[in-house]
Amino acid sequence: MAHLLGSQACMDSLRKDLTDLQGAIVDVFSRAGPVRFPSWKFPDRVACDLDMVALLEHYDHVPGDPEFTQLSHAVLLELVIDRKGQTKGRPPPPSPQPRASQPRALNL
């Protein structure tokens, strides 16, 4: 797997996954409000306040600079962990309760 570190195809796929994940998080936040936890990757900042667009622009594949490209790949992987951390701490949604007005099935 080490030979894939810095691979442009892997990084492009990872960037798409991060964009999709961030979109889902923003959708949930718009309905339930942000979860205010420290970022795993940047512990001095709140995870929901990270500028993902700027991070994705900065940590990109750079042809001719394998060292920075490999660092960028590792940071993108760490950002997946960081985004996952935004979903912790929120209790699971309550189980739907049966409505009192629903008729029960009759066993005939």
Automatic annotation (TrEMBL):
It comes from the Eukaryota. Residues 98-108 have a biased composition (Low complexity). Residues 83-108 are annotated as: Disordered. PANTHER family: COILED-COIL DOMAIN-CONTAINING PROTEIN 157. This is Coiled-coil domain containing 157. It comes from Equus caballus.
